[in-house]
Amino acid sequence: MTFGQKVTFVRREKKLTQAQLGAAIGTTGDMVGKYERDAIKPSIEVAAKIAEVLDSTLDYLIRDIRSSATEQKQVSPALIDYFNKLEKLPAKDREHVLAVIDAFTAKLKIQSIME
Questions:
Q1: Which stretch of DSSP H or E encloses residue 26?
Q2: Which residues contact 16 (CB under 8 A, 6 or more apart)?
Q3: Which pLDDT band, with edges at 50, 70 and 90, does 67 fall under?
Q4: Closest among 96, 24, 16 to 7, alpha carbons compared
Q5: What whole-number distance in Å separates Cα of residue 57 and Cα of residue 20?
Q6: Confidence of residue 73 (pLDDT cuts 50, 70, 90)
Q7: I need a labelling partner for 55 at 20 to 30 A (CA). Which of 25, 68, 78, 87 fits?
Q8: Does CATH number 1.10.260.40 belong to domain 3-62?
């Protein structure tokens, strides 16, 4: 997906119009439309504002995800939303959540060995 496609996707998930996103980042809806059509690329500062307003990460928006010859694995928007929420937790709470994830992945590994 391109930068523009990702912005469109996340903006629609957040139920924002182009005009609302434009106002939130200090530009117009027409300019957001140009970004979404990949007609022009925003500056890094504007892209960062877009990511912040959309509660996304700049890395997600700008990383070029291309299909591989074998298998394309994309992180679902719902999972990205959880990652964003996890980043906002206090460090101690984040450690607890990661410990639970580690426990479940260890359990899965043990189960696959036992089979």
A1: none
A2: 24, 53, 54
A3: very low
A4: 16
A5: 19
A6: low
A7: 68
A8: yes
Tokens at 65, concatenated? 């995800």
Dist. CA 51–CA 45, nearest whole Å = 10
| Residue corresponding to tokens 């990383």 | 63
DSSP structure string for 34-90:
HHHTTSS---HHHHHHHHHHTT--HHHHHS-----SS------HHHHHHHHHHHHS-
36 touches 18 (CB < 8 A): yes
* pLDDT number for residue 65: 55
Q: Please state, in angstroms and rounded to a whole number, the distance separating the CA atoms of residues 103 and 26.
A: 44
Residue closest to 27 by CA, chosen among 12, 5, 45, 6:
45
Rounded Cα–Cα distance for residues 111 and 14 (Å): 38
CA distance 97 to 66: 31
Residue 114 scores a pLDDT above 80: yes
